[in-house]
Structures are given as structure tokens and as C-alpha cells.
């Protein structure tokens, strides 16, 4: 039983309510109050959210300017795995060109050329694991 204070026609009453499933609910009030009854509220139905869609493959993030330890040397920004090398020895590149893709924490990170120049040496292979600061590519 639950007790409630109810105002009927401007007069306050204290009532006790008992839930009776599947039937009309009755309310017990003092003898001086009018009787009140209510139909049970419909039970709300739970609708599960739609099944979560499978997560699409990680898209490459915007090209990051490469860290250089020495002039012309492109170093790894973070530990990861070389997914793709976008240039070959002898290729001419401009500042901002994507030269390598490094996967780190399940995200593909585009590594960009820090300056205009020619690729002189590629110091890593596709699939190779690298650590922060490892030399990747030399641009002259």
C-alpha cells in the first residue's frame, strides 16, 4: 500500500492505494470523501534499439607533418606499423604530400613530407614495426 495526498474539488485527502494487477484499481479514502477508481495504466513496452551497425574500417587521418631528427629525415611520430609507402626512391615530393601511412592504435595516420625535395632513401619496409623517433624516409 502506498499513501498519497490528493486534492479533489479543492479539498485535500490522504489516500492509500494498493496495486491489483489485471483489474481496476480501487482507492480507499476517508468516509467523507467521494470514492475514486482508476483503470490500470498500460504497461510501457520496451523497444530495444536497432542492432549496432558494424564499425567501418578506420579511415586515414589528415596528413601530419613529419618529425625530423636531422634535416631531410622523416621520423615516426608514434610507435606503430608501416601500412603503406606512397613514394619510391627518386620521386619528387612537395611539402604536405603523403609519403607513408603508419597504423597506430588501430588508426591509419598519413605521414606527410615536411619539405619539397626528392626521395633519396626509404629506411623502412611495408609491414615493419617502428618506434617513436625511428627514421622512415630521407628527403633531399
Question: Can you give a write-up of this model?
Answer:
The protein has 140 residues and is mainly β. It has two domains: 2-38, no CATH class; 61-139, OB fold (Dihydrolipoamide Acetyltransferase, E2P) (Beta Barrel), CATH 2.40.50.100. It is 0% helix and 44% strand. It is built from no helices and 13 strands. It has strands spanning 2-8, 11-17, 25-28, 37-38, 61-65, 73-75, 80-85, 92-93, 98-104, 107-112, 117-122, 129-130, 135-139. The strands form three sheets. The protein has a five-stranded mixed beta sheet, with no helix packed on it. The protein has a four-stranded antiparallel beta sheet with strand order 1-2-3-4, with no helix packed on it. Strands 6-13-11-8 form a four-stranded antiparallel beta sheet, with no helix packed on it. The chain is rod-shaped, with a radius of gyration of 36 Å. The termini are far apart.
Main features:
OB fold (Dihydrolipoamide Acetyltransferase, E2P), five-stranded mixed beta sheet, 0% helix, mainly beta, 44% strand, 140 residues, four-stranded antiparallel beta sheet
Concise structural overview:
The protein is mostly beta strands and 140 residues long. The chain has no helices and 13 strands.
Number of strands: 13
| Tally of contiguous helical segments | 0
CATH superfamily descriptor of the largest domain: RNA polymerase II/Efflux pump adaptor protein, barrel-sandwich hybrid domain
What is the CATH fold-level name of the largest domain? OB fold (Dihydrolipoamide Acetyltransferase, E2P)
The CATH class label of the largest domain is Mainly Beta
Strand arrangement across the biggest beta sheet: 5-10-9-7-12
Radius of gyration of CA atoms, rounded to a whole number = 36 Å
Q: What's the overall geometry?
A: rod-shaped
Mean pLDDT: 78
What is the CATH architecture annotation of the largest domain? Beta Barrel
Structural class: mainly beta
List unreliable stretches of 5+ residues. Answer: none
How many domains, as an integer?
A: 2
N-to-C span? 85 Å
Main pleated-sheet profile: 5 strands, mixed
Beta-strand level of the residues, as a percent range?
35-45%
Q: What's the order of the H and E elements? A: EEEEEEEEEEEEE
Amino acid at each position: 500500500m502506498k499513501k498519497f495526498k490528493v486534492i479533489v474539488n479543492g479539498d485535500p485527502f490522504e489516500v492509500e492505494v494498493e496495486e491489483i494487477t489485471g483489474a481496476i484499481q480501487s482507492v480507499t479514502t476517508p468516509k467523507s470523501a467521494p470514492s475514486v477508481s482508476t483503470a490500470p495504466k498500460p504497461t510501457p513496452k520496451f523497444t530495444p534499439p536497432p542492432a549496432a551497425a558494424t564499425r567501418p574500417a578506420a579511415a586515414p587521418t589528415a596528413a601530419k607533418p613529419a618529425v625530423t631528427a636531422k634535416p631531410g629525415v622523416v621520423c615516426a611520430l608514434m610507435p606503430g606499423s608501416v601500412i603503406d609507402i606512397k613514394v619510391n626512391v627518386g620521386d619528387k615530393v612537395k611539402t604536405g604530400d603523403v609519403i607513408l601511412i603508419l597504423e597506430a592504435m588501430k588508426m591509419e595516420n598519413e605521414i606527410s613530407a615536411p619539405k619539397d625535395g626528392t626521395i633519396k632513401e626509404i629506411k623502412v619496409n611495408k609491414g615493419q614495426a617502428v618506434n617513436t623517433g625511428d627514421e622512415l624516409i630521407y628527403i633531399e
